[in-house]
Every structure is written in C-alpha cells, then in structure tokens.
C-alpha cells in the first residue's frame, strides 16, 4: 500500500464528500497506516471481519458497513457500527432496529437501491421501498435512523450508463426527501461511487464515496 494514492485522492475530493476507505480483506496494519495519516472512516462488508478489526484498532475509527447484511450477523456489529450503507430489505431494517435497541443505540442507515443492469447486486426497487416506508410498522422503529440512500452502478467502462444510474439514485433521493423525509434534516446522504466511477458519482451528487482498490494498492 502506498499513501501517495490516498494523498492524491483526498486532495481532490470536495470537502462536502466523505471518503469511506473500503478496507475489506486488507490487514489491520494497512488500516493503521491510513489511520496514522489521519483517516478515520473505514468500510467493511463482512460482520465478523469488521468486529475483529474494531477490537484491535483505535476506538475512534468510524466503521461503516457496506455489504449485504444477514440478520443473524447483525449481532457482531450492532454495538459499534457508525453507519450501515446497505439496508436492502424491510426485514433487515427491522432486525437492525431490534439489535440497536438491545444496545440502547440509534443506528444510522442508508437505503440501498438497485440501480445497475446486473442481477448480482442487492437493493430495493422504488416500489419495494415505498411499500416499506408506508407500512405502519416502519414508523414504530425507534432505534434506526434513515439518513439517505446508497447504490452501486453497473461494473462497466460505459460512462454514459454509469452516469444514468447515478442520476437515477439521485432522483430517488430527491423523491424520498420530498415524500417521506421532508421533516428530517438528517436525511441528506447519497453514497455512490467506487474506485472505477467515483468522479462521475461526485459530479452527480454523491456525499459519500467508497474507495477500496484505488487507495489500498
Ligand atoms: C468493495 C466495495 C467497494 C470498493 O470497491 P473498489 O472498486 O475497490 O473501490 C465499494 N462499495 C462496496 C459496496 C463494495 O463492496
């Protein structure tokens, strides 16, 4: 790992955009190096791996969970996770609420939308999301806070397609804000953009980008 990549990127990211360093499968030593350079926000996609790293690394790290979350694994991260980017079903959200309650916390969450032309990516459709938000049970969940949306574009070199997908996610964000979260100033985050496409994502309104390979190589 080379801090030159990190320094070059962090200097080009606008101040309103939070850089999540995706440290999945990277050893704790590399995270510590970035930490020593001043970075505090790290993203992981496996609950047990995140827990293990949380236990040995400095306690002021902000741990973001970015992968598909199985309900039986929420217990590993519920006590400390700073943000879950990847809420992709009502059942996961209800389970997160349950574990957050156990730990007397309110866990910030993003709603993950399916925006790609691939069958392998998780996320809500607009209809599914609407159904969840209009379900009376949703408003009883006191230990989660929805603060925005997340999405992954198709893995392609087609910049036009990528841009369309990010525009779509931004459109969902605006619609949700108007229809369901107008009274919630915390609802303001759009997590989109990875190593391959983060520049387009920033142009299309990302407030959080999730970079792995381009930082840790
Ligand atoms: C791995 C991963 C990233 C980072 O991907 P890179 O291409 O390595 O930047 C971002 N978001 C999610 C959800 C991921 O799983």
General description of the model:
By secondary structure, this protein is an alpha/beta fold. It has a single domain, classed as Alpha-Beta Barrel (TIM Barrel). 35% of the residues lie in helices and 18% in strands. The chain has helices spanning 3-10, 28-36, 47-56, 90-102, 126-134, 159-179, 198-203, and strands spanning 18-22, 41-44, 62-65, 83-87, 107-113, 144-151, 189-191, 208-211. The protein has an 8-stranded parallel sheet. α2 (28-36) links the parallel β1 and β2. The longest helix has 21 residues, at 159-179. The model has no long low-confidence stretch (mean pLDDT 97). The structure holds pyridoxal-5'-phosphate.
List the helices and strands and how they pair.
Layout (H helix, E strand, L loop, with lengths): L2 H8 L7 E5 L5 H9 L4 E4 L2 H10 L5 E4 L17 E5 L2 H13 L4 E7 L12 H9 L9 E8 L7 H21 L9 E3 L6 H6 L4 E4 L6
Parallel strand pairs: 1-2, 1-8, 2-3, 3-4, 4-5, 5-6, 6-7
Bound molecules: pyridoxal-5'-phosphate.
